[in-house]
Amino acid sequence: xxxxxxxxxxxxxxxxxxQTLLLTRRDVAALLDLDTCIVAVERAFRLYGEGKTGAPxxxxxxxxxxxxHIKAGVLELGRRYFAAKxxxxxxxxxxxxxLPTIQGVxxxxxxxxxxxxxxxxxxEITTLRTxxxxxxxxxxxxxxxxxxxxxxxxxxxxxxxxxxxxxxxxxExxxxxxxxxxxxxxxxxxxxxELGLDVRATADLTEAAHASDVIVTCTPSRxxxxxxxxVRPGTFIAAVxxxxxxxxxxxxxxxxxxxxxVDVLEQAATMGDLHHALAAGVLTRxxxxxxxxxxxxxxxxxxxxxxxxxxxxxxxxxxxxxxxxVAVYERAVLAGRGLPxxxxx
Amino acid sequence: xxxxxxxxxxxxxxxxxxQTLLLTRRDVAALLDLDTCIVAVERAFRLYGEGKTGAPxxxxxxxxxxxxHIKAGVLELGRRYFAAKxxxxxxxxxxxxxLPTIQGVxxxxxxxxxxxxxxxxxxEITTLRTxxxxxxxxxxxxxxxxxxxxxxxxxxxxxxxxxxxxxxxxxExxxxxxxxxxxxxxxxxxxxxELGLDVRATADLTEAAHASDVIVTCTPSRxxxxxxxxVRPGTFIAAVxxxxxxxxxxxxxxxxxxxxxVDVLEQAATMGDLHHALAAGVLTRxxxxxxxxxxxxxxxxxxxxxxxxxxxxxxxxxxxxxxxxVAVYERAVLAGRGLPxxxxx
Lengths: 345, 345
Prior knowledge:
The structure is a homodimer. The longest helix of chain A has 19 residues, at 123-141. Chain A is built from 13 helices and 17 strands. Helix content of chain A is 37%, strand content 27%. Chains A and B meet through strand 2, strand 3, strand 4, strand 5 and strand 6 of A and strand 2, strand 3, strand 4, strand 5 and strand 6 of B.
């Protein structure tokens, strides 16, 4: 069904004035790799931490069975860019319609004149930039001598999370946990082969977590799955799953006894695991150590001792999407990939 | 520069599962006329007034020299649709870059599964749906025996506004006012020829307004241009220009002495002429008679006497965009127009 547009439009060069590049999921996947995305996302957090960009905006529209979420922001990356990502989230899609839970589109524009530069499928970017945020957080917040990791939630995002942790720490052994034992087994088999690591499926999350230096939770859970008794001192936890008020992965007690770093305080306080800790009354906003951008920009320290437990509460910052979309667009222009369309004429 | 896609892709039929229709400004212009847009926008106001849709959402991102505004909403029109319009607004564009002030894109999606159905240029829709709101408001709020109208602001939107008023009332004479006298002259000449009406350019807004049954203000003014002494009893005023907190066209005194109908109360109170009347302390929110949807849905009366002055404070409701985008999409599918792309594969 997909057409190779550069075959059909060999005379149309992208990046010309008045033209907008259309990039399919396949285009984006071909143009963006995790390492590039990590670099782009780290830069976005740094610019945010340095106060060189406004607070990113979020808009939600709820409907029966799901909802739409819009994230928008501006980044100065040589040129000033604006991007808005509109993602639909329909959890019943895979079983009911054979469709992905999340579908969406990113509009990338020049933020000095407003011209739309690109329209791109959002799926790859949403997946990779979420992994990239964990990589950036682990780089600044995990111990240097990480050897063992546990991944809770063995779907597509779990795979990206493991690759992301591996990109910044010398992981040797991995525990894979999932309510669906077969999914954990498949994950272990495939990731072991892909990464050449010792990956083991296990049903005992407490045992796995206790043996781990890094724990990533990336599930759709609505109740805590990781508590104070599950982790040993010095662990870095990336709490990735909770990105709406009704989702939760970490107990308030574990949150309260850990150093908390968030991506965006306002978001974490309303839709991250922080939200539930605040609601439980065990924490206040001022107990949050930092936004990740503060740490990346050097305005606040990252890890201060090998004994402290640190939780990164990841809710998804619009600037991650902006940075990733810019990386895709600039590569597309260089590679001559994508379909240039004259939208406004 | 524009390619006729149906020539290139004769074998690709739009509206198939997994396909997203790409519609350029030219496509939208060919598919949407003002009369169709008026019907669609009236239906949107009715559904909103009947409480059959959630409150539309707005998100703004400001940058040097301009900004981006996102408007998103859901409408049930046989099928449930979601649309998000991302518009860039850069007032310096025409003189500085030879580009339009407003450029943008609408993402239309199925609101039961989230699938993106269409990506379309927003320019025609923004222009027509703004005129259409005035037509709907005039239909319910202007006297039946309207014969004379004044249009203040003789650009593209002024032309659409006049066509919109003409679509619902038997206007015979029109006064055209603009700070740029040549623009008013051109408007008068062109619109007289197009509509077969008596259209006169004038520099005396007070005289014109005093002689008019309908007055439309559609300027980028940041200070009031129409006051209490300018209008006679029974006039209908569509205040269209103010759509950000710093824009204003109507004096607080005229607002206070008129019956006020708004498109969306929350928006009018923060970025319409109502905003300035509230700030001046001459009105409170409870003095607002109705949202237009209440009137269209029959939940509140429209005009109650031929003597009352009514101001419609139009700030632009997301559901106008949703309704217009749906009309464009459904016509595109029927006509086989637009470029079908497989975005998510």
